[in-house]
Amino acid sequence: MKTSRLARTLLHILSVLAVLAAWVVLDWHPTIRELGRLRSERGDVERKLKDYTFTVSSFVFPDKAENELFRHGAGALDREMPQMEDDETWSSSLFAWLRRQAGKDEIAGLRFLFSAWPGKNIGSGLEWMQGEVDAGWLTSQLPEIRNRLREAISGRFPWENLFFNPAIPMPKSLAVRPLAIVLTAPLPALLNFVNHISWGKFRLEIVYLVLEPGPVLYRAWLICRSSYLFSKPSAWGVKVEPGADNDILLIDPDSPLLWQSLDPHSVWRKDQHELVADSGWNRE
Q1: Lowest model confidence (mean pLDDT) among 23-37, 42-56, 136-150, 262-276
Q2: What is the Cα–Cα distance from 35 to 39, expressed in whole angstroms?
Q3: Could you write out the DSSP letters of every residue in 54-104?
């Protein structure tokens, strides 16, 4: 009898504890989970505040030297860009410089290919040739050269945010023109010419390069982009699309570089370096 009563008492106690445990789980668990989430968010906010505090403490307002650089930099782009009267002046001046450079680098064969007007095939434009270029190989490469020439000026101008920044007024308009250069030469001379191609005042930008060994000489073709300022009307003038946002920074707006003081010695152009003379180019 006593055993039965004790069992009923224990069962009653266990039932009550089970109900309490279920109530605790159902009622307190969401609250505990919410408290954990809030604690985690508080930790994230504290870490962000610590990072922001460090960033703000390291911010340096522009000093006199920086302000002087900004004043001189406003017209630096205009001074550095080649300034041409028109498209014909560009072609004659650029080709004259490339011919002289090809002679210095002892290029065996050199050919310039470009369109006289935007959208036209290179065969309908002007061409210039010096020495011998593998005609069969060039014919096989022409379709790809045409495609790459079109790609070089298709779509939005890649440096639009730099050239059309309201903070950098430009007295003249900008033109961008693609050019294909086909050449044959021994490998050292060919690589030297490619290395020198952006050294001139025309600031040629190489956007595509194909290099292949030939029976005797190496063969290559390059797609370059030339940017220049012009005073007379140009068929290659760059136009800003209506409504385009031209104030976008060229670097990440959250970059810590924006918080650092500008080093006056880091903005000057680096020296141009020749390729290493003895690099085993002629070895099989």
Answers
A1: 262-276
A2: 6
A3: HHHHH-----HHHHHHHHHHTTHHHHHS-EESSHHHHHHHHHHHHHHHHHH
pTM to 2 decimals? Answer: 0.65
| Cα-Cα-Cα-Cα dihedral sign, residues 165, 166, 171, 172 | positive
In the three-class reduction of DSSP (H, G, I as helix; E, B as strand; rest coil), residue 276 is classed as coil
Map tokens 């779509």 to a residue: 155
Q: Which of 178, 184, 183 is nearest to 205 (CA)?
A: 178
Question: Which of residues 134 and 73 earns the better pLDDT score?
Answer: 134
- Chain centroid to Cα 28, Å, comes to 55
Query: What pLDDT digit, counting tens, does each position of 168-188 carry?
Result: 566 568 888 888 999 999 988
Backbone angles phi, psi at 215, to 5 degrees: -60, -40
Q: Are 115 and 122 in contact (CB under 8 A)?
A: yes
- pLDDT computed for residue 283 by the predictor: 45
* Under 8 Å between Cβ of 211 and 244: no
Written as six digits, the tokens of 77 are 């782009």
